[in-house]
Amino acid sequence: MTKDSLPGLLFPVLTVALLAAGQVSAKYGASLKAAGSGGLLYLLISYGCYMLRGITWAGTLRRMPVSRAYPLLAAGYPLILILSFAIFREELNAVKAVGAAFITLGVILAGASSDE
Predict the structure, then answer these.
(1) Residue 113 has what pLDDT?
(2) Phi, psi (5° rounding) for residue 28?
(3) What's the whole-model pTM score?
(4) C-alpha dihedral over 52, 58, 64, 66, to 10 degrees?
């Protein structure tokens, strides 16, 4: 696998997407449950996302070194930050935005400096 091949990035991208989907589903389900409106379905969806994430993470580790793959999980933080703002209207201030930018820069630097 070449370092930047599209098939090689499929599993890590799916892993991060499933991580974010699981977090959003868990938050939504917990919010509904707290409001007395159920929410069990969304909690089950979140657990399903986490199980699938385990499978895609294993696929990621088969295709790249863990030292290169693990920093990619940090890309989930900015994604979840944006989704929580867009879906739940959670606060997104300058400090959080700068922190997310630093995390993103760190992921880029860690990925660029990894040897294969």
Answers:
(1) 66
(2) -65, -45
(3) 0.82
(4) 110
